[in-house]
């Protein structure tokens, strides 16, 4: 007989002996389990018995035990009864703890199943995603919030998934948002190098910040507020009666700004006019405004006749006149600034005072202009848009998202600060911001909610401060008062107001001539060798 057979027989014998022993000791095990159960029951009853009743209970038990003991064969009967009841109690298998269905487990399994059709490869030998697979093979980390909602998730995906294609990404993002809850926004961080996707649910942005003076440097405009990731600083703001630190989305304007003009797009009622009003209130203490309300809804009527507001136009005729003046004013400023730069003298004060052209729904006027065969207001914006940065002229255009195609290429190309408000589909959002969003918007967004992109930076979330129309009687009185408090009055201007009507401003050619004259005088004083430079000033026409 070979050694292997010996070993095999030995194993069989040992297994048989073990089985016999288990059978033999089974009743004892049963009784022991029952006794343990009885002991636990007794302990819990004792613990739940009030202290004052413990003495009598103990006394009654001892009396019963003594009675049983004194009975003929009482002890024997008691032991048999105890063993029988222990055997009965021990017979019942210990009730498995009723496992609460883990909702997190169910949610992750559902998400895994939903992702499988998009991420499974039919020819994959060891697939991360398969019909009978488990989510733990693909999900490497997850977090749930206090309400049991998915807060963060890290997902691995196969290398063959086309993660560079926006459409493929969008499909996965839609599935994740659908399963994790459409009421929230999610940030999708695609790590293409390691084939991992990190999903983070984003907390809603505060909607209770009203219009107020913001702590910023001149030339900085607070477009709204974002999350900590979207801003490098915080500013103090009055919020719900207290001062809180909030991260602002700041847009810098002026000659050193790489994004001197802004385009705000949004669906109807999403809050683009409110954003324009918020910008106007922040710009007014340091600059002058020309407002064109193309929709003619009178939403900017609160600015009429305010110091620093040249005009608020709602008609095509008025808009064309104001924009023609703005184009000439841009040229006048450029001419004076160029001349001042050549001669080394300080530029006249009225050339350095910021001028803001705020246009709400200009495409409506463009259509009207086309029908009436009049100059298109958008064409008149060309000079301020192209040369506004040097001339301290800033253009802000607010338009309906649907009218994006009706905006002139110059307007779209030169407005390098972008805002999109309200629900925008992935394609429209990308067209408006010039890049794909790595955040999927929530199904319902409050007014003034959207995304901002300053230049080539990544888009950030944005909530515009509640800057309601003070003439809107439906708006809360508190919010209206906040705006009224910020509207300038004659005695609250921080700087001398610029001429109140466009016609009152000096003629650009005359102004250039006067600076040239002053330059010539200086040149004469400084000597003959500077005379050449003086001729140079004359030969530079105002562009
Ligand atoms: N940031 C905000 N906070 C609170 N309410 C806002 C905000 N933005 C807009 N609203 C409110 O939403 C409504 C619509 O706002 P608004 O008129 O600015 O939208 P819009 O995009 O200009 O709409 P439309 O294009 O139809 O003119 C108004 O009642 C306004 O008070």
Automatic annotation (TrEMBL):
Statement: the UniProt record of this protein carries the keyword Iron-sulfur: no
Keyword terms: ATP-binding, Membrane, Nucleotide-binding, Transmembrane, Transmembrane helix
Residue span(s) of domain FtsK: 246-430
PROSITE patterns, per database record: FTSK (PS50901)
Binding site for ATP: 266-273
Matches recorded under Pfam families: FtsK_SpoIIIE
Transmembrane region(s): 58-88
InterPro entries: FtsK_dom, P-loop_NTPase
Domain of life: Bacteria
Keyword Aminoacyl-tRNA synthetase annotated: no
Protein name per the record: FtsK/SpoIIIE domain-containing protein
Source organism: Kitasatospora paranensis
Lineage: Bacteria, Bacillati, Actinomycetota, Actinomycetes, Kitasatosporales
């Amino acid at each position: 007989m070979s050694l292997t057979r010996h070993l095999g027989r030995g194993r069989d014998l040992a297994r048989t002996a073990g089985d016999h022993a288990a059978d033999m000791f089974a009743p004892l095990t049963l009784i022991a389990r029952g006794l343990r159960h009885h002991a636990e029951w007794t302990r819990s009853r004792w613990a739940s018995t009030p202290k004052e009743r413990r003495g009598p209970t103990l006394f009654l038990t001892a009396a019963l035990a003594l009675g049983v003991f004194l009975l003929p064969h009482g002890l024997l009967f008691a032991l048999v009864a105890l063993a029988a009841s222990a055997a009965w109690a021990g017979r019942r298998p210990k009730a498995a703890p009723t496992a609460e269905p883990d909702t997190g487990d169910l949610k992750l399994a559902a998400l895994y199943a939903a992702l499988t059709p998009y991420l499974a490869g039919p020819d994959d030998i060891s697939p991360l995603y398969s019909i009978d697979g488990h989510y733990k093979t693909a999900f490497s980390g997850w977090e749930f919030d206090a309400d049991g909602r998915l807060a963060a998730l890290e997902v691995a995906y196969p290398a063959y998934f086309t993660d560079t294609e926006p459409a493929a990404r969008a499909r996965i993002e839609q599935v994740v948002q659908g399963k994790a809850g459409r009421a929230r926004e999610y940030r999708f961080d695609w790590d293409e190098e390691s084939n991992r996707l990190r999903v983070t649910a984003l907390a809603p942005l505060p909607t209770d910040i009203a219009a107020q003076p913001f702590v910023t440097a001149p030339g900085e405009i607070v477009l709204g507020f974002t999350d900590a990731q979207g801003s490098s600083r915080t500013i103090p703001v009055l919020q719900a009666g207290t001062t809180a630190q909030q991260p602002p989305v700041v847009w810098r304007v002026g000659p050193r700004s790489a994004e001197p003009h802004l385009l705000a797009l949004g669906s109807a009622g999403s809050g683009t006019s409110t954003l324009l009003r918020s910008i106007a209130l922040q710009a007014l203490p340091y600059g002058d405004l020309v407002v064109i309300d193309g929709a003619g809804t009178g939403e900017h009527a609160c600015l009429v006749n305010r110091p620093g507001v040249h005009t608020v136009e709602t008609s095509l005729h008025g808009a064309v006149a104001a924009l023609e003046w703005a184009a000439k004013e841009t040229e006048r400023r450029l001419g004076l600034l160029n001349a001042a730069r050549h001669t080394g003298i300080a530029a006249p004060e009225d050339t350095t005072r910021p001028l803001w052209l705020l246009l709400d729904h200009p495409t409506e006027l463009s259509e009207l202009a086309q029908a009436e065969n009049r100059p298109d207001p958008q064409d008149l914006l060309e000079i301020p848009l192209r040369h506004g940065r040097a001339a301290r002229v800033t253009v802000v255009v607010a338009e309906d998202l649907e009218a994006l195609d009706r905006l002139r290429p110059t307007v779209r190309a030169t407005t390098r600060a972008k805002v999109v408000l309200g629900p925008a589909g992935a394609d429209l959002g990308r067209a408006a911001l010039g890049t794909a969003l790595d955040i999927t918007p929530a199904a319902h967004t409050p007014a003034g909610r959207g995304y901002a992109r300053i230049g080539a930076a990544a888009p950030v979330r944005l909530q515009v401060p509640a800057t309601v129309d003070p003439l809107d009687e439906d708006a809360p009185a508190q919010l209206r008062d906040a705006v009224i408090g910020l509207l300038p009055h004659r005695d609250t201007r921080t700087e001398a107001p610029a001429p109140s009507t466009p016609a009152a401003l000096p003629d650009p050619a005359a102004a250039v001539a006067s600076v040239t004259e002053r330059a010539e005088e200086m040149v004469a004083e400084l000597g003959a060798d500077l005379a050449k430079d003086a001729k140079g000033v004359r030969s530079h026409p105002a562009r």
